[in-house]
Design a protein that fits this description.
The complex is a heterodimer of chains A (about 425) and B (about 160).
Chain A lengths: L5 H9 L10 E4 L3 E4 L3 H9 L12 E4 L9 H17 L3 E3 L6 H7 L8 E4 L13 E4 L2 H10 L2 E4 L3 E7 L8 H12 L8 E5 L8 H11 L6 E3 L4 H6 L21 E6 L6 E3 L7 E3 L10 E4 L1 H4 L2 H11 L9 E4 L4 H9 L2 H7 L3 E2 L20 E4 L15 E4 L2 H10 L14
Parallel strand pairs in A: 2-3, 2-5, 3-4, 5-6, 8-9, 8-11, 9-10, 14-15, 14-17, 15-16, 17-18
Antiparallel strand pairs in A: 1-7, 12-13
Chain B lengths: L1 E8 L6 H4 L10 H6 L9 H4 L5 E4 L11 H8 L4 E4 L4 H9 L3 E4 L1 H6 L5 E5 L4 E4 L5 E3 L5 H8 L3 H9 L3
Parallel strand pairs in B: 1-2, 2-3, 3-4
Antiparallel strand pairs in B: 1-5, 5-6, 6-7
Classes of the chains: A alpha/beta (about 425), B alpha/beta (about 160).
């Protein structure tokens, strides 16, 4: 018998300790299920099933983050309805307006632990792989059936092994590695697959940096992404790795459908866009592009270390006239920590505008949508045409340091000129 | 079952923001969503698409968000089937769960053009041009998914399983 990947182990466990291998279609029982504003849709379908309460309210997490605070009367109504639903159903793990982004809260509040199966009604549920959980996105109707039955089916995915060696150069971040990987394998390069990260590089980066890698895997089509258990887990939570840590460690003879190697020191700051995550290249190739808006935030790059990196670039500098810098911390905790460290003050003094914790303008609903002809550089994950407002606007993706440097110059700028120190 | 419709052809990587923009998602009404379907790539589509029409697209159709309103918007304007070289996984899952016919087929993408009239033959698993000149085979849908689509989606399928009328 050949060894198992982390995906095969976790899904086998979540199916009731069965022997599962890539390609099997199995019935799984998730440990955590999460939805956001689409809880409104989840409940609408759930009501059709004539059940009073979900199968296990304690396994449900609901977060209001996508249009938060409410952008329209319709959203406000949906928020009000969701508050009523979670109260009536006894869903205790409810995070209201301003608490933060769902994927951030799952990890930050330790609502998910290594080896668990998380199903989220959001594509970036892959982010939970940063703490050794198998996180996969599903739709709202399917979530309603999970609420009712506590189970669904999954096909056990083949796994792509991405080994990252070496160390990052100055002003280069996990986001640059992720954008490089996306440009290399493409927007469907990991479709239906799990990406399992490995290599000595992982010891260099925090849970936060690992969340960036796992989050961006969704942009390559991945079903899930996993960072296997290691000592960083122990620092994140004294209980982790638990006795089940073998669940999130691949067997040495596990079978992979593809192997990719990246040497971290070869990666420069990367910019990607517009329109596709496949259009990635060195920041120098984008240097002439003028920007109207610079945005730092999202489930990809709105964490404390992202805001710190931006503040180091911005310290003593000013956002150039004619360019807007918007910063949305990924959670209230991130905002509180950034405030106490003086990071928010630095960003404000440089001319940045702080938005409430949440998804911000990433999905084009509010808080900084783009006009026709405008250009935005964002620390988010999607540069699709029309994503942040007008279909005639352009979006480029980059690390928070590159976004901050670009805000100072009013055009896409190499962060290596501004970030002279090791973080 | 065969049913004729107009072919609407699109390219690779048609993402969920192009299918239904995030700014329309605060209104869950199907006809509202349908009126903005594919707006990011075609201003004509939502105005001219008719009941029974068929979308044919390239690789990675529906990539991006998990928003099932992408499927709802296309169902709402009468699209009977989506045939693509490949689908992004969450879109495919949502389509099955909402009872939308989805088939993988490189043949169809190569053989059909925008504006062609074609009939979907689900029992034979093929798409036939009304002119009779062209036929493309469709990849078989796995049985556990076909059962959901044939029930009309995951809700009717689950209601039947749970004995809810």
């Amino acid at each position: 018998m050949t060894g198992k990947t982390v995906a095969e182990k976790i899904l086998g466990r979540a199916a009731g300790d069965i022997d599962s291998k890539a390609g099997d279609v199995i019935e799984v029982f998730p440990d955590v299920v999460m939805s956001h504003e689409n809880t409104f849709l989840v409940n609408k379908a759930f009501e059709e099933l004539d059940l009073e309460k979900p199968w296990a309210p304690e396994k449900i997490v609901v977060v209001l983050d996508h249009r938060s605070p409410a952008n329209t009367v319709q959203t406000a109504n949906a928020h009000a309805r969701i508050r009523e639903i979670v109260r009536r159903m006894g869903i205790g793990r409810f995070y209201d307006v301003g608490e933060g982004i769902c994927h951030q809260l799952l990890v930050e509040k330790k609502l998910v632990t290594p080896g668990q199966l998380v199903l989220g009604a959001d594509s970036h549920t892959t982010t939970a792989g940063a703490v050794g959980a198998f996180g996969a996105g599903i739709g709202a109707t399917e979530m309603a059936v999970v609420w009712a039955t506590g189970k669904t089916w999954l096909r056990v995915p083949e796994t792509i092994k991405v080994t990252i060696t070496g160390h990052l150069e100055k002003a280069v971040f996990p986001k640059d590695i992720a954008l490089y990987l996306a440009s290399k394998i493409g927007s469907s390069g990991a479709n239906y697959k799990c990406i399992e990260f490995g290599g000595i590089f992982l010891f260099d980066i925090s849970i936060s940096g690992r969340m960036v890698l796992c989050n961006m895997a969704a942009e390559m089509g991945a079903k899930a992404a996993i960072v296997p258990a290691d000592s960083t887990f122990g620092a994140w939570s004294p209980e982790c790795p638990s006795k089940d840590s073998s669940l999130c460690t691949p067997d040495s003879d596990a079978s992979y459908c593809k192997a990719i190697e990246i040497a971290a020191e070869d990666i420069p700051p990367i910019v990607s866009g517009p329109g596709s995550v496949e259009l990635g290249g060195s920041v120098e190739d984008f240097a002439a592009i003028e920007i109207d808006q610079a945005f730092i935030g999202t489930c990809t790059n709105g964490r404390l270390e992202d805001l710190i990196a931006a503040s180091w670039v911005l310290k003593g500098n000013k956002v150039v006239e004619g360019t807007r810098l918007l910063v949305a911390p990924a959670s209230k905790t991130v905002l509180t920590d950034a405030l106490s460290m003086g990071v928010i003050q630095t960003i404000q003094e440089a001319g940045g505008t702080i938005l409430p914790p949440g998804c911000g303008p990433c999905l084009g609903a509010h808080e900084g949508v783009l006009a026709p002809g405008e250009t935005c550089i964002s620390s988010g994950n999607r540069n699709f045409k029309g994503r942040m407002g007008s279909e005639d606007a352009s979006i480029y993706l980059a690390s928070p340091a590159t976004v901050a440097a670009s805000a100072i110059k009013g055009r896409i700028e190499d962060p290596r000129r501004w970030l002279k120190v090791d973080l | 079952m065969t049913c004729e419709g107009r072919v609407w052809k699109f390219g690779d990587d048609i993402n969920t923001d192009l299918i239904i923009s995030g700014r329309y998602l605060d209104n869950y009404d199907e006809s509202h969503l349908a009126s903005h379907a594919m707006e990011g790539i075609s201003t004509e589509f939502a105005k001219r698409v008719k009941e029974g029409d068929i979308i044919i697209a390239g690789r990675n159709f529906g990539c991006g968000s998990s928003r099932e309103q992408a499927v709802v918007s296309l169902k709402g304007c009468g699209v009977q089937a989506i045939i693509a070289v490949s689908f992004a996984r969450i879109f495919y899952r949502n389509a099955v769960n909402l009872g939308m016919q989805v088939y993988e087929s490189t043949d169809a993408y190569e053989a059909f053009n925008d504006g062609d009239k074609a009939s979907l033959d689900t029992s034979e698993g093929c798409l036939r041009a009304s002119s009779g000149a062209t036929e493309a085979s469709l990849k078989e849908v796995p049985p556990h998914l076909k059962a959901i689509v044939d029930s009309g989606g995951l809700m009717p399928y689950t209601k039947f399983k749970l004995g809810i009328r």
